[in-house]
């Protein structure tokens, strides 16, 4: 197979607004290095990390909610998820579905032709459990908002599925984030899990994955999205931010809050946790600064868990769930690569339910 020397790519040139993402029609195609594979990208999903990294929201100098626009107070030392600078230009996009079209030294040629989705956590080969040596695909190295991308062979996970590339591109970030949260909180069938922001990619994944574990699930979402959220299978759906959350729960005993929202409503989520309950968090789209009464934490024996770098078994388990049909994609919309600005604007507006995906077939480039 003859591969082109250049490719179409949407390249982020620096921190700032959407105009920092620039379409290049002849960007150098990557070559797979030792132990790496080259992927022809069929589709690539959007996620909050793309937005937060582009605008520098992860910097501790930023205290506002994620808006997707230019921020004036981005620190220069900690604007990426890992609390460090990020190198530009950078091709973002982590949630890739595609096929292996070439391999680097040390990788079996038999992998060529495999359909894959990505494990986005770039672990140190010699110290895979060292969180400080872990990077993220589309952040510490170029990702999938392009026709081709290269990554370590161990991060390209073969999958057998009748789902489309766009549907499979919904899983890598949102569902692994959700499964990582539930794994860290040790959610079981004895739990009742409250999911704020259940209409989003991670929120919807939390609903499905918690139900898969046998837990009872109470979802929270704007009322216009209740029908879509109910299709994901929760036991109950509440408004996005009831004034009287305890009353709205109607006696439900919440043992776990799985949250990516944060913001000013946060204290109410903590107040309704059962004694000995767990709070697991992997985002703060409504704002990172929250108010905590420490007496609530210690007098009620609560456990708080941050969740970012997932356990190594999470992606392997997800592949198994997908292939068995135990979870399903929630694909809200697809856009061609050329319309990534519009896709990300729609993602930020949060009027959709589920995941938004860049699909190369929309431009006639996919079907890989």
Brief summary:
The protein is of the alpha/beta class. The chain has helices at 48-55, 165-168, 174-184, 201-212, 226-230, 245-249, 266-271, 294-299, 313-324, 340-349; strands at 6-12, 21-28, 36-45, 95-103, 115-118, 121-122, 135-136, 148-152, 156-158, 192-195, 216-220, 236-238, 254-259, 273-281, 303-306, 331-335, 355-359. The protein contains 10 helices and 17 strands.
Write the layout of secondary structure elements.
Elements (H helix, E strand, L loop, with lengths): L5 E7 L8 E8 L7 E10 L2 H8 L39 E9 L11 E4 L2 E2 L12 E2 L11 E5 L3 E3 L6 H4 L5 H11 L7 E4 L5 H12 L3 E5 L5 H5 L5 E3 L6 H5 L4 E6 L6 H6 L1 E9 L12 H6 L3 E4 L6 H12 L6 E5 L4 H10 L5 E5 L9
Parallel strand pairs: 10-11, 10-13, 11-12, 13-14, 14-15, 16-17
Antiparallel strand pairs: 1-2, 3-4, 3-8, 3-17, 4-5, 5-9, 6-7
Helix pairs in contact: 3-4
Describe the structure.
With 368 residues, the protein is of the alpha/beta class. 21% of the residues lie in helices and 25% in strands. The protein has 10 helices and 17 strands. It has helices at 48-55, 165-168, 174-184, 201-212, 226-230, 245-249, 266-271, 294-299, 313-324, 340-349, and strands spanning 6-12, 21-28, 36-45, 95-103, 115-118, 121-122, 135-136, 148-152, 156-158, 192-195, 216-220, 236-238, 254-259, 273-281, 303-306, 331-335, 355-359. The strands form 4 sheets. Strands 3, 4, 5, 8, 9, 16 and 17 form a 7-stranded mixed β-sheet that branches. Helix 3 (174-184) crosses helix 4. It is globular. The two termini are 13 Å apart. Residues 364-368 have low confidence and may be disordered.
């Amino acid at each position: 197979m003859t591969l082109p020397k250049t490719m179409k790519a949407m390249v982020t040139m620096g921190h700032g607004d959407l105009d920092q993402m620039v379409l290049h029609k002849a960007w150098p195609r990557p070559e797979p290095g030792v132990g790496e594979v080259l992927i022809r990208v069929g589709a690539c999903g959007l996620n909050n990390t793309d937005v937060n990294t582009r605008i520098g929201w992860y910097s501790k100098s930023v205290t506002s909610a994620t808006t997707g626009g230019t921020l004036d107070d981005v620190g220069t030392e900690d604007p990426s998820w890992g609390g460090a600078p990020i190198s530009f230009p950078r091709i973002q996009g982590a949630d890739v579905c595609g096929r292996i079209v070439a391999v680097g030294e040390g990788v079996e040629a038999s992998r060529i032709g495999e359909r894959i989705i990505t494990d986005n956590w770039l672990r140190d080969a010699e110290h895979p459990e060292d969180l400080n040596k872990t990077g993220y695909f589309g952040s510490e190295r170029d990702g999938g908002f392009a026709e081709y991308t290269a990554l370590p062979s161990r991060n390209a996970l073969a999958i057998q599925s009748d789902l489309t590339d766009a549907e499979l591109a919904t899983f890598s970030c949102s569902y692994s984030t959700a499964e990582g949260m539930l794994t860290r909180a040790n959610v079981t069938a004895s739990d009742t899990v409250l999911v704020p922001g259940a209409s989003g990619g991670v929120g919807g994944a939390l609903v499905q994955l918690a139900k898969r574990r046998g837990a009872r699930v109470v979802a929270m979402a704007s009322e216009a999205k209740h029908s879509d959220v109910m299709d994901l299978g929760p036991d109950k759906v509440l408004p996005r931010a009831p004034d009287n959350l305890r009353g709205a729960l109607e006696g439900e005993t919440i043992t776990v809050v799985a949250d990516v929202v944060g913001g000013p409503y946060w204290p109410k989520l903590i107040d309704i946790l059962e004694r000995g309950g767990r709070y697991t968090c992997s985002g703060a789209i409504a704002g990172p600064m929250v108010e905590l009464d420490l007496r609530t934490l210690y007098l009620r024996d609560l456990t708080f868990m941050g969740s970012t770098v997932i356990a190594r078994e999470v992606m392997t388990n997800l592949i198994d769930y997908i292939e068995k049909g135990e979870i399903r994609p929630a694909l809200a919309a697809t856009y061609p690569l050329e319309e990534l600005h519009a896709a990300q604007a729609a993602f930020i507006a949060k009027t959709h339910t589920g995941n938004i995906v860049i699909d190369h077939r929309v431009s006639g480039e996919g079907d890989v």
